[in-house]
Write a structure and sequence with these properties.
Strand content: 5-15%
Strand order of the largest sheet: 3-2-1-4
Number of domains: 3
CATH architecture of the largest domain: 2-Layer Sandwich
CATH superfamily of the largest domain: Ribonuclease H-like superfamily/Ribonuclease H
Radius of gyration: 31 Å
Structural class: alpha+beta
Order of helices and strands: HHHHHHHEEEHEHHHHEE
Number of helices: 12
Largest sheet: 4 strands, mixed
Helix content: 40-55%
């Protein structure tokens, strides 16, 4: 049985190429010479020249090319299907389209129609799942602090973050030809076990920042007091008159022994809603440090080297000014924060 011949893919001539063909022909070059210059077939050059001599134009006729299987009404229906299920793939939409209309449409046609209508497949924004109580408490907290302006200058935001030696954020792309998927140079290795890294603690104020502390192993309430609060956090707060300390609701932060320590040291705490890491500006500082580590062309071989590089990048941040402007967009109970991180 003879092999099925693949359909050829043709690329339309641009207006510049059509004008160049006409100019070269008027200069006296042969069809073959012009085709060699523009990297096109001689028959294509002949058709362009014939259209120019017969009709005095170079543009394609309106309506030329293959006819669309779908009408404008069908395209609107397809857009509604895609907007109903935003995560549906083009193959899934093609199957749903075939069931709904009885007309077969390939996945590439689905993608082409959606692109023409402005719907492009993009990477989704990931977030922590929030329950109804989480949303209610976040909104309540926002309403309580919506009138804060200069008050944010007294807040000290703190948090822990972990930086790994190797990570994959889904943004890496490989340039390859068809059939080269399994080439060694087109494969990125992914570690299945726990990736070595460094866990750090830090705090930022309006015009100041604390020292970056390295945390080795698991952090519990006793270690949090002994290695973070006593040597760094409390002295940093005492150097800022009227400082208010912010921390998330992790278990080492909310233990009774930690609350007793804060009461003994007369540390004023900022109430913080659960599941709200996106509301703290220090998360953007971790993002800046992580991006700098990723841009470093020198590979980091150990956790100690990573820690040295982190301290260097934190020092380069200078005084990280985080201007917190809370703009309450009460749209679907969402809160938007504008952060300005000055490096």
């Amino acid at each position: 049985m003879p092999r099925r011949r693949k359909r050829a893919r043709f690329e339309q001539l641009t207006e510049f190429e059509r004008g160049r063909i006409i100019g070269l022909r008027e200069a006296g070059l042969s069809y073959r010479a012009v085709a060699s210059r523009v990297q096109r077939n001689s028959s294509t050059v002949m058709r362009v020249w014939k259209q120019w001599t017969d009709e005095c134009r170079t543009t394609r006729k309106s309506g030329s090319g293959p006819r669309n299987v779908t009408s404008a009404r069908d395209d609107r229906h397809l857009v509604r299907m895609a907007r109903t299920d935003r995560t549906a793939s083009s193959r899934q939409l093609a199957a749903l389209w075939s069931i709904a209309t009885g007309v077969s449409l390939c996945a590439s046609s689905i993608r082409r129609r959606l692109l023409q209508c402005g719907l492009r497949a993009r990477t989704p924004l990931y977030r922590i799942p929030l329950t109804h109580d989480h949303r209610r408490l976040r909104l309540q907290w926002a309403n309580q602090h919506r009138d804060w302006r200069a008050d944010w200058q007294h807040v000290v935001f703190s948090d822990e973050s972990r930086f790994n030696l190797w990570y994959h954020d889904g943004r890496i792309r490989v340039r390859r030809y068809a059939g080269e998927r399994h080439l060694p140079e087109c494969i990125i290795e992914r570690h299945s076990g726990r990736t070595p890294g460094v866990m750090v603690w830090g705090a930022i104020a309006y015009h100041r920042r604390s020292q970056l502390l390295r945390i080795v192993g698991n952090l519990n309430s006793n270690r949090y007091i002994r290695e973070v609060l006593q040597p760094e956090a409390v002295p940093f707060l005492q150097s800022l008159p009227g400082a208010v300390f912010q921390q998330d609701n992790a278990r080492p932060h909310t233990a009774r022994i930690v609350k007793s320590f804060f009461a003994a040291q007369q540390v004023q705490l900022l109430p913080w809603p659960a599941c709200s890491p996106d509301m703290s500006p220090i998360e953007h500082v971790w993002d800046v440090i992580g991006r700098r580590l990723a841009r470093d062309p020198r590979p980091v071989a150990s956790a100690d080297e990573l820690w040295t590089q982190e301290k260097k990048d934190t020092y380069l941040l200078h005084q990280c000014i985080c201007t917190v402007n809370i703009e309450f967009c009460i749209i679907s109970n969402a809160i938007s924060y504008n952060y300005e991180v000055v490096e």
